[in-house]
Amino acid sequence: MKRERRSSHQTLLLLGALLGQPRSWRHGYDLAAQTGLKSGTLYPVLMRLSDRGYLESKWEPSEMPGRPPRRMHRLTAKGIAFAREELAASDEVALQRAARVRT
Amino acid sequence: MSTSIARSLALRIGAAAEWLMPERRQDWLQAMHSDLQHIECDRATLRWACGCILVSINERVKSMIPSTGERSQGFLIAAMLSFVPLTVAWLAFLRDLASVGDFSVVSLFGWSVFIPFFVLGALGPVGLTIALRVIVRRHSISRSLGVVLIAGPLLMGLVVLIAFARPDGALLSVLRDAVLIGVLPAIGAAQMRASARPSAEELREG
User: Fold this and answer.
1) By the 8 A CB rule, do A46 and A29 touch?
2) What residues 43-62 of chain A have any CB closer than 8 A to a CB of chain B?
3) What pTM, to 2 d.p., does this model score?
4) Could you tell me which chain A residue has the CA closest to the CA of B30?
5) Cα–Cα distance measured from residue A53 to residue A48, given in angstroms and rounded to the nearest whole number
6) Interchain pair A39, B35: CB under 8 A
C-alpha cells in the first residue's frame, strides 16, 4: 500500500491560520503570534509554500510612520485547496488515532 | 541587559543574516527584517533575529549543496554505469546456470550463495533500467526504492566476501569484485537518490 506523506505539524498550524482568513493579507509576525511558531520555523514553511505556488505575497507600506514596508501573505486558490485537503486528512488521522486508543 | 541593547543586538544579527542569506532568498529576509522592525518588545526582537540568522544559515547551506537541476547529466550517467558490473556478473551467473544446470551450481556454491546471487544480482539490470528512467525524466527515486538499491548490492558484496574470500586465496581480487558489484552500485543508487527533482510524493510534504 502506498504510504502518503502528509504535512508537518507546523505546516498544518500555519495552513490553519491562513485558511482562517483566506482572503486577508497577513504579515509574518502576525502569523507567528497566532500559531506560536518561531521565526526560524515559520519562514522556511512560508518559503516552501510559496515555492510550490500555495502562497502569494506582496509588499505593503507600513501603517506605522518611519517603519519599512511589510511583506504580506495569503493562500492562493491552489493553496486554499491544498490547505483544506491537508487539514481534512490530518483530522481524519487524528480521528483514526483516537478510535485506536478507544478500542 | 538593557532593552535598547537587545534591540540593537537584534538589528546587528539581522544584518549578519542579510549577509548570509543567498541572493534568491533575499526578499524573504527583507520580510523577516521588516517584521523585526515592527516588533514592539525588545526581547522579542532578539528572539526574532535569532530565527532570521538560523533561516539564513539553513538557506546558505542548502544553496551550497548541489540540487537536482544543478547536477550534471554526467553524474546520473555515472550512476547508471555503476550498475553495469553487477548486471554483467548476474548475466554471467545466469549463463553458467544454463550451461551446467541448476543443481550443479547449487551443489558448487550452496543455497546460501545461490539465492543471494540470483535475487540480489537481479538488482543490476533493475538498477540500470531505473537509472535510465531517472536520466530521461529527471525525477529522483523513492526512498524505499533507494534503500533497496543501496542495501541490495551492499549485501551482494558482503555475500561475495564471505563466500569467496579465503586467507590463502586471492583476497585482493575478491575484494575488487565485492567493490565492483557491491559498493559501486550502492554509491550509484545513493547518487540517484540525491539527484534529480524530489518525487511528487515528496513534494506533498510540507
Assistant:
1) no
2) 43-49, 52, 57, 62
3) 0.55
4) A71
5) 9
6) yes
- The whole-angstrom distance between A24's CA and the closest CA on chain B is 17
Question: What are the distances in angstroms from CA A65 to CA A28, B128, B189?
Answer: 19, 63, 57
The residue type at A86: E
Q: Which of B157, B144, B143 is nearest to B186 (CA)?
A: B157
Task: Note whether B192 and B146 are within 8 A (CB).
Answer: yes
Inter-chain contact B35–A28, Cβ cutoff 8 Å? yes
Q: pLDDT digits over B123-156, tens only?
A: 989 998 988 888 776 667 788 888 888 888 888 8
Flag if B31 and A11 touch (Cβ within 8 Å).
no
Q: Do A67 and B202 touch (CB under 8 A)?
A: no
Our CA dihedral for B165, B169, B172, B178, rounded to 10 degrees, sits at -30
Low-confidence ranges of chain B (pLDDT < 50): 1, 68, 199-201, 203, 205-206
The chain B residues in contact with chain A (CB within 8 A) are: 25, 27-28, 30-35, 37-39, 47-48, 50-52, 54-55, 58, 201-206
Query: In this predicted model, which residue has the larger pLDDT, B90 or A99?
Result: B90
ipTM score of complex: 0.84
Looking at residues A52-74, what average pLDDT do you find?
Answer: 92
pLDDT of residue A37: 92
